[in-house]
Amino acid sequence: MDSLDDFMQTHPPTSARPLLGLTVLVVEDSRFASEAMRLLCLRSGARIRRADSLFHANRHLKIYRPSVVIIDIGLPDGSGVDLIRDLTAGKSRVEVVLGTSGDPDGENKAIKAGADGFLAKPLSSISYFQSKILEHLPADRQPSGVRVLSYDSVFPDEVALRDDLEAAAVALEDTSDQRSLRYMTQFLGGIARGVNDTSLSNEIDALAQLQVNGHAVHNQVARIAAMVQDRIARTAII
């Protein structure tokens, strides 16, 4: 397993970089959300590793032992709740396990599964990110002295947003797989909320309601697909 003990002894956390010496594994399917996490870790002193699915997260955890794992609730090959439960139930427990989601019910799901805490999306505040991790670390992992609070925010590059939108556009071309469509509804909803795109978010909420009621979704999917293409065109001009 990858150990940070020697690194921690020679590079202790500081008030300006309170997560120095920690490795954070981010289990997140969105490139845009992952880029925000990367910037937050960079500004906080932490190293970051990323897995975009449960499969890749489990493969990673067989080799490395991160200090912190941040797990998105909605993933392409299952629920992040299952991974949270696995990482908090065993004897070789990860120090800090946090859930993350843009779903209003995400926090309840994560905490019930055993997560130490929860990060609400969209994530941009450096001080919020640092505090949510530090409050669950033991005293010897805390920076000494008074911590300098950063009121800065991070802003991911729009290239990452375009990557997410292009992946969604491809998935929306085939609505025959209901499970994939439910996942894509959740994925796109997270993107829309993450960039405060209210009009797209409202249309995705309408699609989710149609799915719950068992109604036809073809027209609504077509409407959303057109909106996604419009946003891809906008982000292409960088």
UniProtKB/TrEMBL annotation:
UniProt xrefs under Pfam families: Response_reg (PF00072)
Residues modified to 4-aspartylphosphate: 72
InterPro entries according to UniProt: Bact_response_regulator, CheY-like_superfamily, Sig_transdc_resp-reg_receiver
Record key words, sorted: Phosphoprotein
Example of a GO biological process term: phosphorelay signal transduction system
CDD domains tied to this protein: REC (cd00156)
Residues covered by the Response regulatory domain: 23-136
Name assigned to this protein: Putative signal transduction response regulator receiver protein
Organism, as annotated: Octadecabacter antarcticus 307
